[in-house]
Design a protein that fits this description.
The structure is a homodimer.
Chain A (H helix, E strand, L loop, with lengths): L2 H16 L6 H8 L3 H4 L6 H24 L16 H17 L1 H13 L4 H28 L8 H18 L3 H19 L6
Helix pairs in contact in A: 1-2, 1-4, 1-6, 4-7, 5-6, 5-9, 6-7, 7-8, 8-9
The structure holds a DNA duplex.
Amino acid sequence: MTTKERIVETALELFSQRGYDGVSVRDIARAVGIRESSLYNHFENKRAIFDGIVDVCVRQSEVYFRESALPFDQGDDTSVYRGIGLEHLQELIERTFRFFFDDPWNARFRRLLLVSQYAEPRCRDIYQQLYRDKCIAVQAYIFSALMDAGEIRREDPLAVAAEFHGPMFMWIHTCDSFEEARPLIREHVEQFRKNYEWRPTP
Amino acid sequence: MTTKERIVETALELFSQRGYDGVSVRDIARAVGIRESSLYNHFENKRAIFDGIVDVCVRQSEVYFRESALPFDQGDDTSVYRGIGLEHLQELIERTFRFFFDDPWNARFRRLLLVSQYAEPRCRDIYQQLYRDKCIAVQAYIFSALMDAGEIRREDPLAVAAEFHGPMFMWIHTCDSFEEARPLIREHVEQFRKNYEWRPTP
DNA sequence: AATAATATAGAACAAACGCTCGGAAAAGTC
DNA sequence: GACTTTTCCGAGCGTTTGTTCTATATTATT
């Protein structure tokens, strides 16, 4: 790993805990194991380190959404999820949730955006897109497929996705560990299943 | 309004935007309209200002929960909400939501806790209690009453409350104005009503 | 092996930081 | 009106901040 990469990784860890102003250039240098003057060989100034972190993480999240989540922006073809059933939802959600919660880069980046969002408009934008809009869009896509498959009752997919993602959002933001969140997520998926699974009209 | 109160109010505004380390004592003094040395007649040091804000706001929120919300910790008597029906939920929720969103003290305090939660364990605790646990407890109380009244189907009230509060939590944290959030809240309450309102077994 | 390019360290800078102090002004008490 | 208490201000304290500079190491290229 190059020094520049180590700086980014270390600074992300620090910024995500104490915020931009709570971390000094000397703090970062000490944590990396070099002197602060050496930092300036890799970044123009402190601000550039912060911006560099955001750039890297945004790029990573784009890769995630393109590869691991869905091609939900490639038209309305829901065939990717044709074989999906409600019984797969629990596992699918737990995997996604684990990524957002436990992946070291993503968990730190989420905290970074969270604590920076009111000081930095760009962070607010990314935060809203990444942890609300994109998540809801992906889930709306899945629910659309589930509706087509007759697994859940037909409703506005975006509204259903918002109902689903709301509690997820809350547990992601207020639980201290994945273990604490897991049973709550399970209960949520269970409630959701009861509420939306298709039943023949009486 | 005393100078001390003006300091607290001003510092809350600043801290909630830029965080503890992002605001200097001189910033606060300038915004209040006095010199920084005069600040030290009212507070021992910068940390005491921050702690003073938290104390004041915690006290205010306790008053709110005791007076405006519910005596939900006074036993299991749900008679306060005996007359409530599902048709009142929309209005009740919108009023509560508006308080959390628009009340200048509460909105700023929420941001303050949010941006400070990873640097200050106390803020993390208060944040979890205030915007998750207490809200869910209050709502569980209301839903308990609605179940007793046969308005919604019987389920674990805490689980139902979590389902209800999740989307609220999300919109509170990611919407930029009450006007932006209002239609989303309405849709949420509508979905919730469809999902939980009592129907005679076929 | 010589040369060029890059990374590092140490010293130093001005500016901003939290904070203290002594004296002037204001407010409250008798 | 004299006295005490509180509040304010300006100057200044030592420290930390972000950043620059120069000399020395390390690495890459020829």
